[in-house]
């Protein structure tokens, strides 16, 4: 009878001790995202949030969203920069909640990796926690899973889910939009977290390199520009919504400006957007030129410098621009709402 040599979980590629060290490294940054409603769970199996905080609402609606960062994680891996993709994850999840007027309350994350490197995981989760604090939400829990043999030692992916709350009669959306409303653009910080499969395709098939410093980028490398973290709009949107003049928001993510704005329009109205109202940041034109990407393809893939849009009452546009300027968010009048059939068009 043959005998098998003694084996272990560690021999299979899973390092439990490394995971425990990662948790210790990230604790202080996660704590900075804490809200007073968070309740400690000594076991650590669940995140607890005191729902009695919702009693101040007459009819609270819970809002939830989930998303990931997409193939931007591959560029983070190649460049060895891990703290910015956490911001991207929070932007993708919690800014979606803000679109309906919901205040983000808490978030959880999930990281899958080929090998747990404690410092790397702590950087990723630390970025998530920092961005949660910017959005006003608590990071109440998460999971790191080591998948040796399925993912390479340096490979990883991350996803998250968030929960928010909005008063039922304050819910924003297409049914509030009317002809004559103004469309306000809020500047993006860059590509954010959509279109990176096209970016990677351009990098693989052009003379662009992550280490290069094209003159258009003002001294920054292409890699630095591509890893610029997503702007977090949640608190800015809530401050604007508190004025009572916002009809709807549109988070400009995958699909580009026109397609995402159309999601916030009723079937009786169109958005006419003025292409000449802003200058597209040079990164987008650089990618288009070196990748041979037609303008129409750029339009439907990237945000082109607009990360969030607000549809506001006609007489509220100037006040909205002032409020956003005070909050440090570059903004401008992007267009107007006209009678139509639910389409957004870049003119």
From TrEMBL:
Keyword Cytoplasm: yes
Family of the protein in this entry: Belongs to the AIR synthase family.
Gene: purM
MF terms (GO), sorted A to Z: phosphoribosylformylglycinamidine cyclo-ligase activity
Stored InterPro entries: PurM-like_C_dom, PurM-like_C_sf, PurM-like_N, PurM-like_N_sf, PurM_cligase
Keywords (A to Z) from UniProt: ATP-binding, Cytoplasm, Ligase, Nucleotide-binding, Purine biosynthesis
Recorded metabolic or biological pathway in which this protein acts: Purine metabolism; IMP biosynthesis via de novo pathway; 5-amino-1-(5-phospho-D-ribosyl)imidazole from N(2)-formyl-N(1)-(5-phospho-D-ribosyl)glycinamide: step 2/2
Keyword match Cytoplasm: yes
Taxonomy, superkingdom: Bacteria
CDD domains assigned to the protein according to its UniProt record, in alphabetical order: PurM (cd02196)
Location in or out of the cell: Cytoplasm
Enzyme class at the top of the EC tree: ligase
Domain called PurM-like N-terminal: residue spans: 53-166
NCBIfam families noted in UniProt: purM
EC annotation from Swiss-Prot or TrEMBL: 6.3.3.1
Name assigned to this protein: Phosphoribosylformylglycinamidine cyclo-ligase
SUPFAM superfamilies, sorted: PurM C-terminal domain-like, PurM N-terminal domain-like
Gene3D superfamilies cross-referenced by the UniProt entry: PurM-like C-terminal domain, PurM-like, N-terminal domain
Location of the PurM-like C-terminal domain: 178-341
Reaction catalysed by this enzyme: 2-formamido-N(1)-(5-O-phospho-beta-D-ribosyl)acetamidine + ATP = 5-amino-1-(5-phospho-beta-D-ribosyl)imidazole + ADP + phosphate + H(+)
Taxonomic path: Bacteria, Bacillati, Actinomycetota, Actinomycetes, Streptosporangiales
């Amino acid at each position: 009878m043959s005998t098998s040599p003694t084996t272990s979980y560690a021999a299979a590629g899973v390092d439990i001790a490394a995971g425990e060290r990662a948790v210790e490294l990230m604790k202080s940054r996660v704590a900075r995202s804490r809200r007073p409603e968070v309740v400690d769970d000594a076991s650590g199996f669940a995140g607890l949030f005191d729902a009695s905080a919702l009693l101040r609402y007459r009819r609270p609606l819970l809002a939830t969203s989930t998303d990931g960062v997409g193939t931007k994680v591959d560029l983070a891996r190649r460049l060895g920069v891990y703290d910015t993709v956490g911001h991207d994850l929070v932007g993708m999840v919690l800014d979606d909640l803000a679109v309906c007027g919901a205040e983000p309350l808490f978030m959880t994350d999930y990281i899958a990796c080929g090998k747990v490197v404690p410092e790397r995981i702590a950087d990723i989760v630390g970025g998530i926690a920092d961005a949660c604090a910017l959005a006003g939400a608590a990071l109440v829990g998460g999971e790191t899973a080591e998948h040796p043999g399925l993912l390479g030692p340096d490979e990883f992916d991350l996803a998250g889910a968030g929960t928010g709350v909005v008063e039922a009669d304050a819910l924003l959306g297409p049914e509030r939009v009317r002809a004559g409303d103004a469309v306000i653009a809020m500047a993006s910080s860059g590509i954010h977290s959509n279109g990176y499969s096209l970016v990677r395709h351009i990098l693989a098939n052009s003379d662009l390199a992550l280490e290069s410093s094209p003159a258009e980028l003002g001294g920054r490398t292409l890699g630095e520009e591509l890893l610029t973290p997503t702007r977090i709009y949640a608190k800015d949107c809530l401050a604007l919504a508190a004025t009572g003049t916002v009809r709807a928001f549109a988070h400009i993510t995958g699909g580009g400006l026109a397609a995402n704005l159309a999601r916030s329009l009723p079937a009786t109205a169109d958005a006419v957007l003025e292409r000449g109202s802003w200058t597209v940041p040079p990164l987008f034109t650089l990618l288009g030129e070196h990748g041979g990407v037609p303008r129409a393809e750029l339009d439907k893939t990237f945000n082109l410098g607009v990360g969030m849009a607000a549809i506001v009452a006609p007489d509220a546009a100037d006040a909205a621009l002032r409020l956003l300027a005070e909050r440090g968010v570059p903004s401008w009048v992007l267009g107007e709402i006209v009678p139509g059939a639910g389409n957004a068009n870049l003119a």
